[in-house]
Structure formats: C-alpha cells, structure tokens
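Protein Entry — a single chain follows
Fields — amino acid sequence, structure tokens
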Amino acid sequence: MRLVPLLCLLFTATFAAGAPPVTVDAAKFPSLQAAFDSVPASGGLVILPAGKFEITEPLRIHTEDTRIVGAGAATCIINKNEEGKPSLILRPPTLDQDKKAKLWRVQLADFRIQGQEKSGDGIFAESIQEIYLSGMSVDHHGGHGVQLLDCFEDPRISACIFTYNKKCGVEIINCHDIVVNANHFEENQDALHCTDSFNLCMNGNNVDDHLRHGVVIENTYGSVVSGNMIEECNGTAVILDRDCYGITLSANVIAHHLEGGIDLRDAHGCAISANTFTIAHKFSVRVSADSGRNTLSANNFGNTYIGAGQDKRPAEGKTLMSIDEGTGILLEGTESCTLSGNTFAGLSTAAIWSTRPCKGMLITQNLATDCGRKLAASSAWFAIESDKASLVKDNVESR
C-alpha cells in the first residue's frame, strides 16, 4: 500500500531536478532566431505565427526535445540568401568539436519554407536522431528540399510537399529505419535519394513531373518501396545502384517515363512484384550485368490500351510525352533471376529481350499479347540469349 506514494514522490523529485521544457510564442520575440534561442537545453514547443518572414542567414535550431509548429501555409519563411546557405539548420552546436554529438527528437510541423535559385537546402539536418517532419511545405530552393545527413536513428517524413527544388526533394545519407510516407514530390530535379543507408520504408507517396529521376537508392539494403504513384520523370522512375540488396519494389504505379521504369543497375536479392508499368519509353525494367538473383513476378507491362482495339494516346505526336508507348524487360547479361507470371501487352518492344548472354535464368509462365509493334513481324517476343542452365518455357504468346 505504501509503494504508490513512494513512487510518486520519486517521480516528482526526478522531474523537478531538471528545468522543464517551455512553450515559446515566437510572436513575442524580435525575430524567429531569438525565439529559437530562448528554448532551454531541456527543449520545448515553439509556436510560429502566421506571416511572411524573410531571412538572409540560416535559422538554427540547436536544442533537442524541441517541436516547431506553424500555422500551415500561412506561416512562410522566405530565404533571401544568395550564397547557397540553407533556410533551416538543425545541428548539435558542439558537433565541430565532438563528432559524436547528437540532438534527439527535433520536430518540425505545419509551415512553409520558400527558397530561390541561389539559396541552399530548405532544411539541412545533421546528427539529429528521431527527427520528425510533418505537414511541411518546402519549395523553390537552389539545393535539396530536405537533406538528412547522419540522422541515423529513425527519421520520419510524412504528409509533406516538396516542389520545384533544384536538387532532390529529399536527400538521405547514412540513416536507418527511415519512414517516408504520404508525401507529395513535384518538379524537383529528383524526388528522393537514399544513400549509404538501410531499412527505408517509402510508402504511399505521389511522385510527379520530375526533371530527371524519381527514386534513386544507392548502397542501401533491407528496404521497401511500395504503393507509390511515380509519374512523368524525364529519366527513370526507380534506380537501384551501388551494392543494393534485399529490397522490395511492389505495388507501385510507374507511368509515363521518357527513359525507364525500374533500373536495377547494381542490385541483388531484390523482389519486383505487382507493379503496373505504362508508357515507359526505353524499358519498363532493366537488369544489368552487375545485378542478379532477383525475382520479377506478377507485374503488368502495358501501353494506353483501353479496350475495343483502341489506345488512349496516338502512336505519333509532337512530343514523346504525348504519344502511346509500352516496353518490357531488358536483360543485359544478368544471372540467376526468376521472371514469371507477368503480363505484357501493347508493347513496341519484345516482352523480354536480352542484349548480352544471361546465365541460370528461370523465365516461365508469362503472358504476351500485341507485343513487338515496332519490330519485324517475325520477331520473337521472348528473345533471350542464355546458357544451358536456363529454363525458358511455357510462356504464352497470343499473336
């Protein structure tokens, strides 16, 4: 019976020993930086008022357990710096002296950060653990929308919008257990880079109209990219490169890319399944000689066919983006891959073709119809050069 009062007293004494977090009304300070500087080392909540706030030097957040909350798009920080400096810097103040320094649990929510061509990143975060970005609008920066560097523990980005940034919408370097969920990316150079990391979970995002690529993953493993809409990149929708392994790309809609859909440049032990590919101009999936041991199954490869012998888009037009197109799987000397249960229809190319000999391939029980539109009439739709260990059989060609 006496344990409960004793525990309560212990909890009260422990809490009172340190300075409690504070709530800061930034409207009462002469500048946003002054408001951020008023937060004690124990952290706190900073409430940003509505309004436009022009800055010429980066705003710095240097306390952990700190949450910065705005009034949605009505709170707009405008970066006027023309020396390539970020809008916001989140970084331990002692990091230059102590390379192991970290800040924990810094959160940004519900405000806009607007840059211009000569500014740097919108948000630059280094050595921030359990960083959380939610409801942020980051646009028009000369650098990345967001750059996370060594934010190793559990970074989360959700319900944000990244638009018109000259580099990536989101750049992630040396992080793990990463969640990028339900965001919108539009007209950045690339949407997202994830490099030297692991356990990326990228789900339910809309990636549209990028000047180069969509999602580029390098030297990363144990990750999943699923349920995303990735449309209209001038380059390729998804690229795996530099020793990627153990990654699943599944249930994505990959539509309208001038180069390709998924490019396995250097990827092993990956699963590519239940994706829909339409209007990919050079290839829907490419598997290079530096990739192998991958599975591609239950995907649909098509053009703009809408039934009754009709395509939604014309065969020819003024721009590549305006015309009908469909492509299949290009193999460039890969080995030990399974390609089964896929549907190929309305393609200019073969369903599956190789440009270099492949080894130990299992290619079976795929369906192809109306393929090879831009090939000679007698061209094979499964045109694979492979060794004796490969099995290519029981594929259906409906001509």
